[in-house]
C-alpha cells in the first residue's frame, strides 16, 4: 500500500477539508462562501423544519431541493480540483454528467447558465485557484494604466 497521497488526492482532500459542509444542504453558494454561519432570518435554521421525529422513526430526509444543493456543492468541490489540474476541463459538461439539474445549468430559455461557473474560484485569466485555498481577487490582464503590481 502506498503511504503518501498523490497530488490529485491531496488536492481533493484539501478542497473537501476547506469546504464548510455544516450548512451545505441549506445553501447553494459555491466554493467561495464564507465559513461563518449566517442564519436564514426566519428563526428556523434547521432547514428541514423537522425535529427528528420520535424514537424509532425514520430519520428526516432532505427535500429534493436540499438534496440538489448538496449535489451541486459536491460537484463544485470536485470541479474546482479538476479545473486546477486540467486547463482543458469543461465545468458545464462535468455538471451535466454529474446529474446537476437544468435549473442550475440552463437559463429559462435553455441557454447555458452562469451558475455552474460562478460557484468556482476562477481568475479573470481563466486559471482555477489552488484547491484548499480561499478566494483570491481577480487575476490576469489589467485595464489601461495598470502598473502590473499587486492589486
- For the termini, the CA-CA separation is 45 Å
The helix/strand order is HHHHH
Average pLDDT metric: 70
Uncertain segments:
33-53, 142-151
Strand content: under 5%
Shape: globular
Question: In this structure, how is the largest beta sheet organized?
Answer: none
Number of helices, where a helix is a run of at least 4 consecutive DSSP H or I residues: 5
Helix content: 25-40%
Structural class: mainly alpha
Spatial extent as radius of gyration: 18 Å
Please tally the β strands and state the result. 0
List keywords for this structure.
single chain, 151 residues, mainly alpha, 5 helices, 0% strand
Question: How would you describe this protein?
Answer:
- With 151 residues, the protein is mostly helical.
- It has a domain at 1-30 and 62-132.
- The chain is 32% helix and 0% strand.
- The chain has five helices and no strands.
- The chain has helices at 7-18, 64-85, 91-97, 102-105, 115-118.
- Helix 1 packs across helix 2 (64-85).
- The protein is globular.
- The chain starts with 6 loop residues before the first helix and ends in a 33-residue tail after the last helix.
- Residues 33-53 and 142-151 have low confidence and may be disordered.
Itemize the secondary structure elements and their pairings.
Blueprint: H1 7-18, H2 64-85, H3 91-97, H4 102-105, H5 115-118
In a few lines, what is going on in this structure?
The protein has 151 residues and is mainly α.
